[in-house]
């Protein structure tokens, strides 16, 4: 089993240092939900299908994330509060290369 350390700043500005497993096929949205870092019903509304942008995060420290795919890029093109460093948490699958990732959860529309 291999875990990584991620810093997640919630919508109130509080930074949480969390441990995320790399062997459970989880994504960042699921980690945020499992640690209850966003109010129920305000994150992962579409179930992680890249169709709602409720799991949008701002990447503060990128240790080497996979490039953005077409579906993620298209959804962010329609989302609110998008910044140059925006990504969808549901599209960021937890892998060991993400050690040291720092993100801030974007405001909920």
From TrEMBL:
SUPFAM superfamilies, per this entry? 2Fe-2S ferredoxin-like (SSF54292)
Q: Which GO terms describe its biological process?
A: P450-containing electron transport chain
Q: Which keywords describe this protein according to UniProt?
A: 2Fe-2S, Iron, Iron-sulfur, Metal-binding
Can you provide one Gene Ontology molecular function annotated for this UniProt record? electron transfer activity
| Protein's name according to its UniProt entry | Ferredoxin
């Amino acid at each position: 089993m291999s875990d990584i350390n991620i810093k997640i700043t919630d919508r109130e500005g509080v930074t949480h240092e969390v441990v995320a497993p790399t062997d459970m096929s989880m994504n960042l949205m699921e980690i945020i939900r499992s640690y209850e870092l966003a109010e129920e019903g305000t994150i992962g509304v579409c179930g992680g299908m890249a169709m709602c942008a409720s799991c949008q995060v701002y990447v503060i420290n990128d240790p080497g994330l996979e490039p953005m795919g077409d579906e993620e890029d298209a959804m962010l093109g329609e989302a609110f509060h998008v910044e140059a460093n925006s990504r969808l948490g549901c599209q960021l699958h937890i892998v060991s290369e993400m050690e040291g990732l720092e993100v801030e959860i974007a405001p909920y529309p």
